[in-house]
Design goal:
This protein is of the alpha/beta class. 35% of the residues lie in helices and 21% in strands. It has a five-stranded mixed beta sheet with strand order 1-3-2-4-5. A hairpin with a 2-residue loop joins strand 4 and strand 5.
Length: 128
């Protein structure tokens, strides 16, 4: 299940998230949005807790749509530490999106797991 985010919860759920967030800007009338939904759920299942998936209704959250300069739907943004790292828009179909999601998954599954534990390394105890 995809967490639905609004303008009121966007900062907490996306911008302040300790892990990267894939934001799916969609609308109920958007046919391609419905077509890609199963792919996004599969992506979420494969990534586990490495990447969070959220959905934003672009029609109901006009400020967010304007802030992120949406030109078409669906638009997917991978946001990490409050910064857009990847922008996926204008893909031609399921295979196009699947390949883009695979690239994201590969780049983040090999990513250092600095998000999961806030442990710091004591550099003073290391010997040269």
């Amino acid at each position: 299940m995809v967490l639905s985010v609004s303008e009121q919860t966007f900062t907490q759920e996306v911008l302040e998230s300790p892990i990267p967030v894939l934001v799916n800007f969609e609308a109920p009338w958007c046919g391609l949005c419905r077509i890609i939904h199963p792919l996004l759920l599969q992506f979420q299942a494969q990534c586990g807790d490495e990447i969070k998936l959220v959905g934003v209704n672009a029609d109901q959250n006009f400020k967010l749509s304007t802030t992120y300069r949406l030109k078409s739907l669906p638009t997917l943004l991978l946001i990490e530490n409050g910064t857009v790292r990847h922008r996926l828009e204008g893909f031609r179909g399921r295979e196009d999106l699947r390949l883009a999601l695979e690239d994201i998954k590969v780049s983040y599954s090999s990513y250092p797991k600095i998000y999961k534990s806030p442990k710091t390394v004591d550099l003073e105890r290391r010997s040269a």
